[in-house]
Write a structure and sequence with these properties.
The complex is a heterodimer of chains A (110) and B (116).
Chain A (H helix, E strand, L loop, with lengths): L8 E5 L4 E6 L8 E7 L6 E6 L4 E2 L4 E4 L5 E6 L8 E8 L12 E6 L1
Parallel strand pairs in A: 1-9
Antiparallel strand pairs in A: 2-7, 3-4, 3-8, 5-6, 6-7, 8-9
Chain B lengths: L4 E3 L2 E4 L5 E6 L6 E7 L5 E8 L2 E4 L8 E4 L6 E5 L8 E8 L10 E2 L3 E5 L1
Chain lengths: 110, 116
């Protein structure tokens, strides 16, 4: 599975958009980009995933560059409850197994 | 529709004792993954099991750790002769085992193991 690189920490004001970047320059054509988050030692929570196209759901949007070497997770209106560690993971086509990196610790402040 | 259930939520053991952690996957899921998270670190993959089969144990320590997922009942992660370094949060995840369908892993709330 391709390696991902994320900034260790970010801050965001409540109500503003949080944009979390992820670099995955060695991603191969059939690998997906998944995002999970972990709120204060709880079990990781699925957010969103994509292959090539941009994706949006009720939680977030995922923007994947055309060359697929990087992506951005967007939380459109961050709340204090979005404070968590966010993990960007590249997952192979034929496996459910996820390999977690160190993630980005997002702090949302009032 | 219960999610992934792990118990106990907290487990305290003295050095040398055995720890047994249980995981019941989501209904309809037949694949289970175990992860370990040391304090202030990310989740580390340990083992991937299907009913009655170990598929991938590349992350399991070579000694004292074992895992099973019997035909009936929950998956069990067993740690023999625990040491202080085993103190961690242990998370279980499950899936239906159909990755080509863009399956997601669903995680339990974890078991916090403390070794005195």
């Amino acid at each position: 599975d391709a390696k991902t690189t994320q900034p260790p920490s970010m801050d965001c004001a409540e109500g503003r958009a949080a944009n979390l970047p992820c670099n995955h320059s060695t991603i191969s054509g059939n690998e997906y980009v998944y995002w999970y988050r972990q709120i204060h030692s709880q079990g990781p929570q699925y957010i969103i995933h994509g292959l090539k196209n941009n994706e949006t759901n009720e939680m977030a949007s995922l923007i994947i560059t055309e060359d697929r070497k990087s992506s951005t997770l967007i939380l459109p209106h961050a709340t204090l409850r979005d404070t968590a560690v966010y993990y960007c993971i590249v997952r192979g086509y034929n496996t459910d197994k996820l390999i977690f990196g160190t993630g980005t610790r997002l702090q949302v402040f009032p | 529709n219960a999610g992934v259930m792990q118990n106990p939520r907290h487990l305290v053991r003295r050095r040398g004792q055995e720890a047994r952690l249980r995981c019941s996957p989501m209904k309809g899921h037949s694949h289970v993954y175990w992860y370990r998270q040391l304090p202030e670190e990310g989740l580390k993959f340990m083992v991937y099991l299907q009913k009655e089969n170990i598929i991938d144990e590349s992350g399991m320590p070579k000694e004292r750790f074992s895992a099973e997922f019997p035909k009936e009942g929950p998956s069990i992660l067993r740690i023999q002769q625990v040491v202080r370094g085993d103190s961690a949060a242990y998370f279980c995840a499950s899936s239906s085992g159909q990755p080509a369908l863009n399956e997601k892993l669903f995680f339990g709330s974890g078991t916090q193991l403390s070794v005195l």
